[in-house]
Write a structure and sequence with these properties.
Blueprint (H helix, E strand, L loop, with lengths): L12 H13 L4 H14 L5 H10 L4 H9 L9 H15 L1
Helix pairs in contact: 1-2, 2-5, 4-5
């Protein structure tokens, strides 16, 4: 696992949201772009500080790990499980 990018000193909330949204839409795989991008657009602005830190850490994971966690093909690590479940629920609702 790579280290999450932490908020830059003096980074505004708006800049942080924009950075996380960009990282959500510019993943290594199109599948993850289409899962994380819409989730980011719908939820980043309303996430708490703790949730934003967790999301930032999650974005540091490889897409090859994220996709099976989100789809339920593999069990997500406990530190990511609540957020992975939320993203998975969001993605499944969008597919209906």
């Amino acid at each position: 696992m790579t280290q999450p990018s932490m908020p830059q000193y003096g980074e505004s909330d708006a800049a942080r949201i924009k950075r996380l949204a960009m990282r959500s839409w510019r993943r290594g795989t199109k599948e993850m772009d289409l899962i994380l991008g819409p989730f980011a657009d719908a939820h980043l602005a309303t996430l708490s500080e703790v949730e934003l830190r967790a999301y930032d850490a999650l974005l540091s994971e490889n897409d090859q790990d994220l996709y099976p966690w989100i789809t339920g093909a593999r069990v997500a690590p406990s530190e990511h499980a609540p957020l992975i479940a939320r993203i998975g629920d969001f993605a499944r609702l969008r597919m209906r």
